[in-house]
């Protein structure tokens, strides 16, 4: 059974940094396009960042471009999201997601339970 587990969230001050990790099991991460999505209180899930099988190509929402970096270590079956220059509006629960095969990188597929990021001003 394919599962995902996020970690690394926490509470930081505005301007701070966090590194989120997503551990995959039950499938080879190398075989999948992956993305990060987030959900703020009272809002819908939204795409944050995505990459192809080796992160040789990456995509970002305009709100995080230049501040967040997606990467992966397929040998460790782990996906990462580096969050820099955090802002209060980045406060949300962050999920990694396995993009369904053949779908656009923004498509939300199987995801983990999420990790909370809270940014205080």
What structural category arises from helix and sheet content? Answer: mainly beta
How is the biggest beta sheet arranged?
Answer: 7 strands, mixed
Number of DSSP strand runs: 11
Report low-confidence residues grouped into runs of 5 or more. Answer: none
Tally of helical runs: 0
Order of helices and strands: EEEEEEEEEEE
Give the overall pLDDT as a whole number.
97
Kindly state the percentage of residues in helix: under 10%
Q: What's the alpha carbon Rg, rounded to whole Å?
A: 13 Å
The backbone outline, from C-alpha atoms, is: globular
Report how far apart the termini are: 41 Å
Which range does the strand content fall in? over 45%
Written overview of the protein:
Helices cover 0% and strands 49% of the residues. Strands 2, 4, 5, 6, 9, 10 and 11 form a 7-stranded mixed sheet that branches. It has a 4-stranded antiparallel sheet with strand order 1-3-8-7, with no helix packed on it. It is mostly beta strands and 121 residues long. The protein is globular and about 40 Å long. The protein has strands at residues 3-7, 10-13, 18-25, 34-39, 46-51, 58-60, 68-73, 78-83, 92-98, 110-111, 115-120.
């Amino acid at each position: 059974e394919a599962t995902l587990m996020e970690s690394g969230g926490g509470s930081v001050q505005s301007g701070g940094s966090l590194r989120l990790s997503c551990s995959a099991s039950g499938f080879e991460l190398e075989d999948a396009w992956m993305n990060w999505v987030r959900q703020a209180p009272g809002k819908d899930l939204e795409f944050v960042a995505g990459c192809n099988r080796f992160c040789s190509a990456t995509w970002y929402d305009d709100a995080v471009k230049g501040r967040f970096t997606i990467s992966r270590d397929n040998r460790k079956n782990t996906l990462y999201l580096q969050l820099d220059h955090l802002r209060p509006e980045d406060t949300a629960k962050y999920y990694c997601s396995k993009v369904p095969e053949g779908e656009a990188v923004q498509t939300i597929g199987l995801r983990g339970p999420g990790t909370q990021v809270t940014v205080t001003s």
